[in-house]
Amino acid sequence: MSTTSVSSSGNLAIDGLVSGLDTTSLINSLMSIEQVPQTLLQNKLTTTNSFISSLQTINGLVQTLATKASDAAKASSLDLFTATSSSSSVTAVTGTNASAGSISFTVGSTASAQVGVTAAMSTWSSAAQPITLVGADGTKTTVTPASGSLDDTVSAINKSGAGVTATKVSAGTDADGTKLYRLQLTSAKTGAAGAFEVYRGTSDQVTAGTATNVLTEVGAAVVTQATDASVTLWAGTAAAQTVTSTTNTFTDLVPGLNVTVSQATTDPVTLTVAQDTTKAQAVASGLVDAMNAISSYYTSNTSVTSTTSATTGTTTTTAGVLLGDASTRDAVQRLSSTMSAPVNGKSPSSIGISITKDGDFTFDADAFQKALATDPKGTQEMLSGIAANVGAAATAASDKYDGSITTSITGQQAVAKDLNTQIDSWTDRLAARRAALVTQYATLETSLSKLQSQSSWLTSQLSSSTS
């Protein structure tokens, strides 16, 4: 009796039409044996990809350490400052070239953008009429709205590129109930340089004095004048000096200090700049944290763990994926030795950096702050020396072109690529083998069918002869 089934390759197969054999199961059993080499290759690829992933992870951690070390190695890495203000209306942010000190000034004015409103109207004009906008520097920009409507006028001004924006604002109704509007005109930037005028007419008419300034018409007004922010240093003395800014932020009022004002003051405001020891400490502790992140990852990926099955009692031992890898082992050992090595005959522990018996590092904030307070120059030199040594080791391991770990990653990626090629080759080979077995068993069934037919014929012939 024949049976119909679907083979593991997805093809419809007819089992044993003549022989009664389960040919699909026979072929699948044979193919499972044939597939063993490919399965081994796939398992090896999985292991290789896991190894590559771990190498890339630790390489990224080493690159992070290299970056932190590069910053910490600078001769001014601890020259981090913060500014405090005697007034809440003045704030300051320190830059890279800031230095300790203080400065006092009064705030004369804050920066503002010009805001003007036109007289109330229902339409701009009876027909399309040229509009000329004149900037503080005398630059003239003329546009012509698509019509005399206020909407088209607003659109034309906003698209002019003259640095002025227009908004239609409701202004009630006139005597006959017609809705009225004003146009609010605002400069795009603050400061005196943002001042502007708006005229009905062409540029030539403005020059000739025949155009109408819409901000001086009856009912119109300049609500806010365009003004610069200003501060006066050493106010009340012969050395008084006023500094202006088009915005409320004064860049480099003194080197490395950006000051922002929010309101005028009558009393002097004092800004004090001092070294930020908290930020300085973060530079050193950040270096330790980055090193410990590497050590922690390496330890967890080189440890050997054993688990025992509660059902069978069988113990399984698993080794970390990086166990036995020379590139990561050497890199971690070199980083640890350079982090703990003396600089100019002094131990890193003198600024709070110490190595434990487990190979991890600790950071003593109190020891660092004490060293920074008593010998800021020596502390900077010590940290820069440690960071330079660690940075060199980290770069040697993680450089994107020739780092030792990077090179290992590249080599393993080549291995994975070759394994993929072999696996693909086996896929084609196995498909051909399955097709051959299907054909072989189909031929067997055909041969058996012929023999069965011959047997039936002979039987019938013998029966006739006997009769």
Automatic annotation (TrEMBL):
The answer on whether this UniProt entry bears the keyword Coiled coil reads yes
Superkingdom of origin = Bacteria
**Flagellar hook-associated protein 2 C-terminal domain mapped to chain residues:** 226-453
| Domain Flagellar hook-associated protein 2 N-terminal residue range list | 19-114
Q: Which GO terms describe its biological process?
A: bacterial-type flagellum-dependent cell motility; cell adhesion
KW Secreted (keyword) present = yes
Q: Where in the cell is it found?
A: Secreted; Bacterial flagellum
Describe, as the record does, how this protein assembles with itself and its partners. Homopentamer.
Which protein, by its recorded name, is this?
A: Flagellar hook-associated protein 2
Provide the species name: Curtobacterium pusillum
